[in-house]
Write a structure and sequence with these properties.
This protein has 347 residues and is α/β, with parallel strands linked by helices. It contains eleven helices and 13 strands. 30% of the residues lie in helices and 19% in strands. It catalyses: N-acetyl-L-glutamate 5-semialdehyde + phosphate + NADP(+) = N-acetyl-L-glutamyl 5-phosphate + NADPH + H(+).
Length: 347
């Protein structure tokens, strides 16, 4: 059994980790930390876990995280990098759901997250936790920095176009028009996510710049092996969970005869958590709710020179906790789907 610890288990990604790991046949939940809720049974905070999780929250200094095989950080940015050196020296592997180990350039990290990076040497060895792209590197990683929820949808939506060794689309004018439910903002009191503010409303934000843009650009350029240009506009929509990303790419004249539907199907043929839907499909966020599945539909309106790629995922599962468990499975040599076979819930 894999002894698992979770740092910061009181947020939405934390409770998702608990939900998934409680049903994982090879995971043993060993510790979950919260200084404020020290001593409180997890099931008292999250009644959905009654009968499934018997742990109580404990203050970090009591949690004996160094006895775990792997520790997940479902914490604000900056926490994982502060604790990483001690855990790694004890032989513990780390999966961080925040941004501490996503961006390889420390100056870029400091610009977008407003704090210095405290362990750049560990950052150098950290692996970006997008299994469909970095599976081999994840397998031997000591530290995995999970992608953000938006970047997961954008990178997996555009990867087949960029991974062909030559440009098929105009890679300097890619556009990502993305929508997220309010759980993406975290489990905290904030005016913009109050019911009276977010319900019956739809708005863009971060248009002048969003911290997920440099992360996504970094990932797409690694896939393509060359510079790319991306315009990313996120939106908040009045739903609890889910991401819908509409991606636009202009087809180059020499690529007009390519069957892009077949290209996507071939690229993801052996991926258990990416579903390339039949031609003409319109995936819905509810078709992936509470699951680790990401669904993609490829459109070419009027057989013109514009590709429209539709991508849906659950931001808390494939966009966060589920992807973390997927990475854990890879790191410990398990079936990648173990503990992640939940059927999406409907309605």
């Amino acid at each position: 059994m894999i002894k698992v610890g979770i740092v910061g288990g009181t947020g939405y990604t934390g409770v998702e980790l608990l939900r998934l790991l409680a049903a994982h046949p090879e995971a043993e939940l060993t510790a979950i930390t919260s200084r404020k809720e020290d001593g409180m049974p997890v099931a008292d905070m999250f009644p959905s876990l009654r009968g499934h999780v018997s742990l109580a929250f404990s203050a970090p200094e009591k949690a004996r995280l160094n006895e775990c095989d792997v520790v997940f950080f479902a914490t604000p940015h900056g926490v994982a990098m502060a604790q990483a050196p001690e855990l790694l020296s004890a032989g513990v592997r780390i999966i961080d759901l925040a941004a501490d180990f996503r961006l390889k350039d420390t100056a870029t990290f400091e610009k977008w997250y407003g704090m210095p990076h405290s362990c750049p040497e560990i950052l150098k060895e950290a692996v970006y936790g997008l299994p469909e792209i970095n599976r081999d590197a994840i397998r031997n990683a000591r530290v995995v920095g999970l992608p953000g929820c938006y970047p997961t949808s954008m990178q997996l939506g555009l990867a087949p176009l960029l991974a062909q060794g030559k440009a098929l689309v105009n890679e300097s004018t890619l556009i990502a028009d993305c929508k997220s439910g309010v759980s993406g903002a975290g489990r905290k009191a904030e005016i913009g996510t109050l019911l009276a503010e977010a319900s019956d409303n739809f708005k863009a934000y971060g248009v002048k710049g969003h911290r997920h843009l440099p992360e996504t650009t970094q990932g797409l350029e690694a896939i393509a092996g060359r510079p790319i240009g991306l315009t990313f506009v996120p939106h908040l929509v009045p739903m609890i969970r889910g991401i819908h990303s509409t991606l636009y790419a202009r087809i180059l004249p020499e690529s007009r005869d390519i069957d892009f539907q077949a290209l996507y199907e071939d690229y993801y043929r052996n991926e258990g958590f990416v579903d390339v839907m039949p031609k003409g499909s319109h995936p819905e966020t509810r078709s992936v709710r509470a699951s680790n599945m990401l669904r993609i539909a490829v459109h070419r309106p009027e057989n013109g020179d514009l590709l429209v790629i539709l991508v849906v995922e659950d931001n808390l599962v494939k966009g966060a906790a589920g992807q973390g468990v997927q990475c854990m499975n890879i790191m410990f040599g398990l079936d990648e789907k173990l503990g992640l076979k939940q059927v999406p819930i409907l309605p």
